């Protein structure tokens, strides 16, 4: 039910109220509110579904659109790299430090590959040329 239909429903409800009198006012209002509530719930469901599907083809590139998330992830991994490096170096010296940094690099590589795959998937096969 679109807004034009809601306007028609409101007009019909008001006309019915005039014809039936005030004794049916509560029932008429409840009926109209129920129709509005149904409309609002449908629109919210559509918005949630649209948000869950992610950006539509006309949206900005996912690599540009998700810059904040990617940048934040990089900052967090660098901040966590300090204690991980200290723990690795303290426990296993140079080899522990190398293992810690290989783990950090691996996590960042997987995260970047996820965005790369999503970006190529949105652009289609043209991105592979």
What can you see in these coordinates?
This protein has 129 residues and is mostly helical. The model is unreliable at 125-129 (pLDDT under 50). It is rod-shaped. It has helices at 3-20, 25-53, 62-65, 67-123. The protein folds into two domains: 1-53, no CATH class; 60-129, no CATH class. The chain has four helices and no strands.
Strand residue content: under 5%
Helix content: over 70%
Number of domains: 2
Major sheet details: none
Terminal CA distance: 46 Å
What attributes does this structure have?
4 helices; 129 residues; rod-shaped; mainly alpha; 2 domains
Summarize the structure.
With 129 residues, the chain is mostly helical.
Could you outline the blueprint of secondary structure elements for this entry?
Layout: H1 3-20, H2 25-53, H3 62-65, H4 67-123
């Amino acid at each position: 039910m679109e807004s034009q239909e809601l306007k028609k429903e409101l007009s019909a409800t008001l006309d019915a109220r005039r014809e039936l009198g005030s004794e049916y006012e509560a029932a008429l209002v409840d009926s109209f509110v129920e129709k509005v509530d149904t409309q609002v719930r449908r629109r919210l469901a559509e918005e949630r579904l649209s948000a869950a599907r992610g950006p539509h083809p006309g949206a900005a590139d996912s690599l540009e659109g998700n810059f904040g998330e990617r940048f934040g992830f990089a900052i967090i991994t660098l901040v966590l790299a300090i204690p991980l490096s200290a723990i690795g170096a303290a426990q296993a010296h140079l080899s522990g430090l190398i293992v810690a940094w290989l783990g950090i690099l691996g996590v960042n590589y997987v995260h970047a590959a996820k965005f790369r795959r999503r970006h190529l998937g949105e652009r289609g096969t043209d991105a592979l040329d």
